[in-house]
Design goal:
This protein is an alpha/beta fold. Helices cover 24% and strands 26% of the residues. The protein contains four helices and seven strands; from the N terminus they run αβαβαββαβββ. The protein has a seven-stranded mixed sheet, sandwiched between helices.
C-alpha cells in the first residue's frame, strides 16, 4: 500500500499484520481521488480535496486521510478504535512527517466525542457487512464532525445496501471489484 498522488506520491505505508484491517486498494484509492480532484456530474466542477478539513473514520492505516493531505488538504483527523490501526496511523504520520497536518484519536465512530471543527470531506470505510456506515454517518453528523455542504465518501461491500440518512443525497456511485463507493452530499 502506498500514497498514489501528491507530494508523497509513491511512499509506502505501514500496514498491520494479518487480517485485522482491510485497506482500500491503490487502484480504488486512485479512482476515488481522481473523482474528488476533477469532480464532474453531480459532484460539480470543483476540487474537493484542496484546502479541505478531512475526517477519516474507521481509518485503519490512515491511507485515505494521508492521501488527502498529500494532495492538498489542510488537515486530516484519523479515527479508529483498534489499537493496531492506531499504531499504523501514527507510524505513517511520523514517516511522512505530517504531524502538523494530522491528528489521530482513539474513537468509536458510532459514539464520537463532539468535534472541535467540522470537516468538509469525510471518508468512512467500516468493516463490511456489519451495517455500521449509516449509523456512523448519523453519529458523526450529530456531534459536529460533518460541515454543511460536505462530501462523504463511503466504501461498502458491493452487495451491501444502506439506508442513506435523510440529510444526505447520493451524488455518485461506483463499483470496483468487491467495493462499492458512494459519494454523498449534505
Amino acid at each position: 500500500m502506498r500514497i498514489v498522488g501528491g507530494k508523497h506520491r509513491g511512499r509506502l505505508l505501514v500496514t498491520a499484520e494479518g487480517r485485522l484491517l482491510r485497506p482500500t486498494s491503490d487502484r480504488v484509492k486512485e479512482s476515488i481521488f481522481n473523482i474528488l480532484t476533477h469532480g464532474g456530474g453531480a459532484l460539480g466542477a470543483r476540487n474537493w480535496i484542496q484546502d479541505a478539513q478531512v475526517l477519516d473514520g474507521f481509518a485503519g492505516t490512515g491511507a485515505m486521510g494521508l492521501e488527502a493531505v498529500s494532495r492538498g488538504a489542510t488537515h486530516a483527523t484519523l479515527l479508529d478504535n483498534q489499537e493496531a490501526a492506531l499504531r499504523c496511523c501514527r507510524e505513517n504520520i511520523e514517516m511522512l512527517h505530517e504531524d502538523d497536518h494530522t491528528d489521530v484519536f482513539y474513537a468509536d465512530c458510532l459514539k464520537p466525542k463532539t468535534a472541535s471543527e467540522p470537516c468538509s470531506l469525510i471518508f468512512l470505510d467500516p468493516p463490511y457487512g456489519l451495517g455500521l456506515t449509516a449509523p456512523a454517518l448519523d453519529a458523526l453528523d450529530s456531534t459536529g464532525w460533518i460541515a454543511s455542504n460536505a462530501l462523504a465518501v463511503l466504501e461498502i461491500d458491493k452487495s451491501e445496501e444502506i439506508e442513506v440518512p435523510s440529510k444526505f443525497t447520493v451524488l455518485d456511485e461506483r463499483q470496483y471489484g468487491k467495493a462499492k463507493i458512494l459519494f454523498l452530499g449534505n
